[in-house]
Prior knowledge:
The complex is a heterodimer. By secondary structure, chain A is mainly alpha-helical. Chain A has a domain at 1-78: NADH-ubiquinone/plastoquinone oxidoreductase chain 6, subunit NuoJ (Four Helix Bundle (Hemerythrin (Met), subunit A)), CATH 1.20.120.1200. Chain A has 8 helices and 1 strand; from the N terminus they run H-H-H-H-H-E-H-H-H. Chain A has helices spanning 2-21, 27-47, 51-76, 84-89, 95-118, 133-136, 138-145, 150-171, and one strand at 125-126. In chain A, helix 1 runs antiparallel to helix 2 (27-47) and helix 2 runs antiparallel to helix 3. The termini of chain A are far apart. In chain A, 26% of the residues are buried. By secondary structure, chain B is an all-alpha fold. Helix content of chain B is 78%, strand content 2%. Chain B is built from 3 helices and 1 strand; from the N terminus they run βααα. Chain B has helices spanning 4-24, 28-53, 57-87; one strand spanning 2-3. Classes of the chains: A mainly alpha, B mainly alpha. Chains A and B meet through helix 1, helix 2, helix 3, helix 4 and helix 5 of A and strand 1, helix 1, helix 2 and helix 3 of B.
Amino acid sequence: MPETILFYLFAAIAVVASTLVIGQRNPMYSIMLLIVSFGALSALYIQLDAPFVAMAQIIVYAGAIMVLFLFVVMLLNAAQEDAAEWDRRHPLRRTGISRFGALLAGLLVVQLVWALIRATDSATAVGASGDAATISSVRAVGRVLFTDYMFAFEATSILILVGMVGAVVLAARETSQ
Amino acid sequence: MIPLGHYLILSAVLFAIGTAGVFLRKNLITILLSIEIMLNAVNLTFVAFGRAQGTVDGQIITFFVMTVAAAEAAVGLALVIALYRHRESLNPDAFTSLKW
Lengths: 177, 100
């Protein structure tokens, strides 16, 4: 029973924080709220016997990616959304089309929940249990990662390298030729 | 014990919140944050399914998704900085022309 309460508590935190992320006008507050949402998701990963993913969530997402976002927000010094001028001029940004987008997002929730409720085996219980020793250990994750997923792991390093070079090239100032 | 469906419904709600953010917001940084919300919703699905199946593959796919998210954030934010230098704006509607 306590784990059910904890699940609903952290699920509520994640949903409320994510909703507030897209409701803030100041990107700085959005980033802080997204870190809260990532923390709640990390707690859910611990409930799912995935401590490696939970720690990676905190270290990689909250620690690295969000700090990158914070740096960019502070670098650009763009605390407010400057929508007013382009709002009036661009035909795609009328309120009707925005409402249509919100309607589509709501429709997506209804569709997904409907499909999930009709799914047959969605009542399978998951969560922390006694026989979790083989699944929860980081050793098991590492063993599979470095044997079955060896090629994908190495390809990841190429991806990171390309991403790093791309970021440097894109963000570099044009030097006077 | 929590049914698998609850995790999937939570993931669907988070994904829809991210979709709504991409549709509704006019700030490039907030749009990138919404994409991160969507990636996290998918991660939760992977881990929940992996736990239900009793394998670690879900966690490993989550690891790869996190790597791609890190690369995407770095390149996306570099693009945002480059665009901001040209137009002094973060509004996607300011970048409608291919060349200026």
